[in-house]
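Archive entry: two folds, one per protein. Generate the first.
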Amino acid sequence: MPLVHIHVIEQRRSQAQLRRLADAVQQVMLDHFAAPDRDGYQLITEHKAGQIIAEDTGLGFDRTDDICVVQIFQQGRTLDHKQAAYRALAERLNVETGLQPSDLIISVVENSREDWSFGNGVAQFVEGRL
């Protein structure tokens, strides 16, 4: 049940391209991040030009306005899951959407089972429903 927040610059991609981007991310969550079937939680936020500031941290990346920042909120994934997801996201998004790997930033945010409610004001994990 990762919650994925995808940040992009507005008016750089059509709605179909955004959906292709989201679908590719979801497939990586299923294939490499141990997300269960029918477990897609995604937010796509488009920012005005200049509102994503992403320097290269001294790594020598040339970033463009095609930049895509993917934040994954989750609990219980291993280092192997995370590294596999990083590689798969870079490869899959390049192949399926043309996103250059240097324009992809990924951040995984840890939380715990008690930090989730999937509806009705109930902590389903805590109550043993999930």
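Generate the second and append.
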Amino acid sequence: MEPLILKTDSVVLEFDGRKILQDVYLECKQGEVLGILGRNGCGKSSLLRIIFGTLTPAYKHISINGQYIKKGYQNMRIAYLPQHNYLPKGIKIKKLAQAIIDSRFWDDFSSHPIYRDYHEKTIAELSGGELRQLETLMVIYSKADFILLDEPFTHISPIQAEAFKAIIKKCAKVKGIILTDHQYYNILDVSDRIILITDGYTRPIKHKDELVTYGYVSHIN
């Protein structure tokens, strides 16, 4: 079976007359991890929200295998991890998980310490760090064909980041994953392809040294 392909084309986003995104194009297919880099305020988070369907730009055309997608979250085609907490606080973790998690990954998810140790608790009973881990896991292991992750590595420890990168790579065998993070070295490490947003446009990065050329970083370790 041919992999599903998510295409985002001709995105134009303006705030107060200033163009944030101009004719943005990207595509991601099942079986790959696409990393998006760019400086603060360049539109990375906005682009993910546009794909998911919670931000309406001046123009967009989003499709999965040629079928126009108006709202990515409908029918759980696309799942999204925002920077803020999103899970309802009063519901038991076990109940939420049973509704969200892809059955193909249930054993992986349910054996993770954050679920194994807290599944009988409610979201409100978790600490901030525990909640961020759970929210990230639930999105990655969700039933969606495409996963959008905004800053998945920012509020977790380096050891947890390494564990999440392994999970992302495993799930990307059957899902398409798009992610962005200020910790660019984690994005470079986990991604199959890199897109840089600069001056409102998307630029494919063929070699990491181009991140210096475009002024995103001063040097690459």
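Annotation attached to the second fold: The chain has a mean pLDDT of 93. The CA atoms of residues 83 and 128 lie 12 Å apart.
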